[in-house]
Amino acid sequence: ASHHRLWSEIDNVVKQQVAWARLGVGESGTGWQLFAEDGEMRMYRREEEVDGMVVDPLKAVHIVKGITGHEVCHYFFSPQYRYDWETTLEQMTVLETISEDTCLFLQTHKRIWPASQRDVIFWSHLRHLPNDQDRDGPDIWTVVNHSTEHKDYPANAGKCVRIYLTVCMLCQTRVNPPKDGAPISRDDISCKITYCSVVNPGGWAPASVLRAVYKREYPKFLKRFTAYVTNQTKDKSIMF
Ligand SMILES: CCCc1ccc(-c2ccc(S(=O)(=O)CCO)cc2)cc1[C@H]1C[C@H]1c1ccccn1
After folding, report:
1. Are strands 118-129 and 161-162 parallel, antiparallel or unpaired?
2. Which atom of ligand 1 sits closest to the CA of residue 202?
3. How far is ligand 1, taken at its centre, from the CA of residue 132, in Å?
4. Atom 21 of ligand 1 has which residue's CA nearest to it?
5. Per residue of the chain (240 residues), what is the pLDDT tens digit?
6. Which of 73, 121, 188, 202 is within CB 3.0–4.6 Å of 141 for a Cys-Cys bond?
7. What's the pTM?
8. 66 CA distance to ligand 1 middle (Å)
9. Which residues 6+ apart lie within 8 Å of 234 measured at CB?
10. Whose CA is nearest to atom 25 of ligand 1?
11. What separation in Å is there between the alpha carbon of 213 and the centre of ligand 1?
12. What ipTM, to 2 d.p.?
C-alpha cells in the first residue's frame, strides 16, 4: 500500500499520533484536566476553541486485564464489528479498502439535540510497531483515524454537518508469565490503552452542549468498547 495516494499522509500522521499518545498527561500543570474516572480508566481533556468552536483534545488512559493490544486494535479497526460497540453510529460505509490494514470510512452519527446531525469521512490505518525506545519494552499496536476528503461526498452537501477528527488508539500489552512455566493464559496479560482524539465539530454548536456530549459519550464509548473486546475474546485463543 506504500504506492497509495494517501500513503505519505498516513505515514506522517501515524508517526505524529504515536509520539503524541506516548506523551503522558504529565503533572496537572500541563493543562490536562481529569474529567472522568472509572476503575483503571482516566479521561483528560484540554479546553481549546478554534474560531469559537470547541475542539477540546481528549486523552484517555485505561488498563484492561485479559486482552492484548492486537485484539483491541483488531476490533477497533475492523468494520464488521463497529455497529456492535459504536452506539452513536447511524450509518457506516466502507468507501475504499486500500489494503488489509487501511480503509476509508464514511460515518453518519446519530443527531444529538440541539446540535444538527454530523457525518465524517476518515482513513483508518492499523499498524504494529516494535518498541523502538527500549528493545525489551512492550511493542505497540495502534489504529489511527484521520479525516480526509472524498470526491463523491462533498462536505455539507446533504443534511449533515461534516466534522473533522484525528483519533489514535494506542495499545501496549503486558505479560506476567506464570511462575511454574505454564502456558500464558488471559489471567497473565493486560493491555495499556491510550486513546487520543481531537474532534472539530464542523458547524457551530454551543460549547456547553458539545462539552456535555463529550463528557457523557467518551467514557461510555471506551468502557463499552473495551467490555466488547473482553467479551469477544474471552473464549478465544490469545491474539498476541
Ligand atoms: C458533535 C460531535 C458529534 C460526534 C462526532 C464524531 C464522533 C466520533 C467519531 C469517530 C470516533 S472513532 O474513535 O474514530 C470510532 C469510530 O467511530 C469517535 C467519535 C462522536 C461524536 C459525538 C457523538 C458523540 C460521541 C462522542 C464520543 C464518542 C462517541 N460519540
Report:
1. parallel
2. 1
3. 31
4. 109
5. 577 899 999 999 999 999 999 998 876 667 899 999 999 999 999 999 988 899 999 999 999 999 999 999 999 999 999 999 999 999 999 999 999 999 999 999 999 888 889 999 999 999 999 876 666 677 899 999 999 999 999 999 999 999 999 999 999 999 999 999 999 999 999 999 999 999 999 987 889 989 999 999 999 999 999 999 999 999 999 999
6. 73
7. 0.95
8. 26
9. 66, 186
10. 217
11. 10
12. 0.92
